[in-house]
Amino acid sequence: MDKSPPKQLLESIYQQLLPSLQIESVNPRNPIKVSYLPEPWRLLGKGNYAAVVYHPNHSESVVKIYAPGRPGYEEEVEVYHRLGSHPAFSECFYAKDAFLVLKRLYGTTLYDCMYLGLPIPKQVIQDIDKALDYAQSRGLHPHDVHGRNVMMHQGKGLVVDISDFLHPEACSKWNDLKKAYYCLYLPVFYPLRLRVPYFALDMIRKCYRLGTSFKTSCLDILTGLKQR
Fold this sequence. Notes:
alpha+beta, Phosphorylase Kinase, domain 1, Transferase(Phosphotransferase), domain 1, 2 domains, three-stranded antiparallel β-sheet, 6 helices
């Protein structure tokens, strides 16, 4: 965090964005609600705990703002501190008052690539693998890495969301996605350039969640039985 954002950007954040922005997290399992965003700020994306916005005059940076009462800000600052500078990750330029100024990453999520029928080369998967290995070498635990949290840009792989990288719990999402990529996507979808509608992608995502929850419940039951 040795690169400071432009003074004009910080002034706009404190004088224009923060006093007027209205965001709230109604349900921690659903994306937050953005009720009002002052002009000329633009909404780039939103997650379950935070919104990501940018100013058209400073489009090389984004501002990630946590909704009131939602955790994770301090942890995310620590993750960026450990990551430092790496081509597959964003970089934190400023962190204070429950918001971060980050380097903007451009690209298309692998989730959207499936919908658009964009070919995903092996290099993208390999780049993300190397980036996650790098994160582990910095004492982090890649967590919640799935199709909406990784992107492709000019044939390269990028990791977008690192907010859960301090969680030590094992997470198989990326390994499961890789298995689907090599076993199903490469032999079937890649050569045919098949497009998958969003309703089908959402159905797959929900089925995966249910399967993961069922698997976790079974493991918890077996662990409890062994401890008796």
